[in-house]
Amino acid sequence: MAEVAEQSINADTPMGEILDRFPGAKRALFSRYHIGGCQSCSYSDDETLGEVCERNENLPVEEVVDHILSANEEDRKILIDPVDLKALIESDEKVRLIDLRTREEHEAVKLPDAEMFSNELLQQIFGTEDKERRIVLYDHTGDRCLDAAAYLLGHGFKNTRALRGGIDAYAEKADPELPRYKVEFED
Predict the structure, then answer these.
(1) Residue 92: C-alpha distances to residues 81, 95, 135 (Å)
(2) Of 22, 50, 76, which one is at a domain's C-terminal end?
(3) Are 87 and 49 contained in the same domain?
(4) pLDDT tens digit string along 90-111?
(5) Residue 3: is its pLDDT beyond 80?
């Protein structure tokens, strides 16, 4: 029950809070309702869900809430916990680790055998990677890797996952020897 209360959102919930609590909400709103993808349908963090629904053809708030929560449940299936990833790395299974962070962050601290994301790497994956192979994407705090994993899943790479909480959570929960850091522009 506590999880349901934690996930409840309504017409008065600000969009910034929704996006903080449900990282895939932006993708979910755009894919189903074409909300948030361009300047004419964008929204501000302090705008409420009710206001966004009203100016987008008076969408029923309850339907939109249900869609955000449903999309969040699907997103949770894409995530891999740091401790589970550590066990996977230590197993015999070949896992491809892809780092979505900046070159400076990647050079400072990375997971074993991780590759830095680039367009060239993406083309290589599309051209030669076995679609059954386990791929795990990560960033610093888990903000961007979910969308990237969903993109690869959408292209048939069905064993793609995103690291919950990013490398920061991995260092905290799975490998305390890994240095942690804070990026200047983060909260």
Answers:
(1) 18, 9, 14
(2) 76
(3) no
(4) 998 999 999 999 999 999 999 9
(5) no
